Amino acid sequence: MPQLPKIDREKPGPLLGLGIFYPSVGALERIGSDWDWIWIDAQHGDIDISEAAALVRTAELIGRPALVRIPAIDPAWVGKALDFGAAGVIVPTIESMEEARAMVRAAKFPPLGNRSFGGRRVIDRMGRAFYRTANTDTVLILQVESSNAVALAESFAALDGVDGLFPGPDDHAIRDGRDVDAPKDRDVIGSQTRAVAEACERHGKLSVGLALTDATLEMAKEYRYCLVACGGDVAFLTSGSKNAAQKARGFFDAK
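^ that's the sequence the OP posted. Answer follows.
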């Protein structure tokens, strides 16, 4: 099963990721290999648990590690996603050390956590000894999506069993009373993303982020993010369709 490669901070550039929001294994099979890792969004995407499992299988088919963003702070989802072979889980809206520790307990085997042994697919694919290296083979990424959570970034990053942090600029904007559609530039989110990235670097953890514009790509580069999601199936489908329709209309409308 594909795992995230170990990050070498001395080498330039992060691993670039593709977001999957629709349960289309065909789309993932077709375009997933353009990217270094796959983000399967079972929180806000139109994806249930069985569809997430199918997408993880497809990511394995194309040789890409898949991280599943689970719908909530839910230990059952953490264990299930790892049991069907995800390279890691992304847990949204972490707001406290208690919640962070609960996710470590769910994601890691003893003595670090309390993950239950017995995942059918992972045993079938890797053998019963998989648990011996599972704590380092898979990753637990926590999303920090408020000023409260960013203030705890140092403590989250220092926690054994947490493998990385992922800011959520849209939720952060709403919780701070800002417009969710305000530009995500350095003046608006720069201090938040830098704080998270620096906490991760100090503790040797993965810094994860979204970079959908030139401004956020520049910040991801400057702050030395390790994993960067650069687009998703929805945006690529939308832009490709719109461009093709506009081109065709322009051709037939031309005099």
